[in-house]
Specification:
A hairpin with a 3-residue loop joins strand 6 and strand 7. This protein has 200 residues and is α/β, with parallel strands linked by helices. 18% of the residues lie in helices and 35% in strands. The strands form two sheets. It has a ten-stranded mixed sheet. A four-stranded antiparallel sheet has the order 8-13-10-11, with no helix packed on it. Helix 1 packs across helix 2.
Length: 200
Amino acid sequence: MSRCCMVLSLAEYIPWDYENYVGVDKGALVLAKKCITMDVAIGDFDSVSEDDLKQIEMFAEKMIVLPKIKDETDFEAALKTVQYDEIDVYGGLGGRIDHELLNIKLITEYPSVRLLDDENCIRLLQNGTHMIEKNGYRYVSFFVLDDGYLTLEGVKYPLDDRLVTTKDLYLTSNEITEEFMRVQTSEDILMIQSNDKKGR
């Protein structure tokens, strides 16, 4: 199974245990400054200097320069271009709220993608049964994309084949009580595992 770390411009922490890295626009510069070789560097690179671009080229096995005027973000273009079974994205949360919301919307179209930062892991769960590892997170929240039935086990507030709708807001701030929780959903659903910010 192929797995990659995709880095966007806001990335502050980048794990070193990936075999494959992809840099998106200024995220490619973040990787280059850490001397991490990328499979692909992709973007319009309108936010980097000529010297920065040369540094990116030194650490990119493949460069894809996109037009500055286009109908998609660099991140969306990257997801359409690369082929990996699992894609962990760092640097896609925080910053401008419109960009953050767009990035979250994109992962509802790409089930192989997770958005991560120091406190959060956001991913799409497709219809079916999933065993989700706690993995150091305290909280779990769900956002319904279509009305359907949801079962939750291994959490403080379990559900048993409960009908949930897009209007239901009580699915936030549940707590993970076991090392693995069981999630069974009849429809695709957005899941966020999280912790409180450090120092709070």
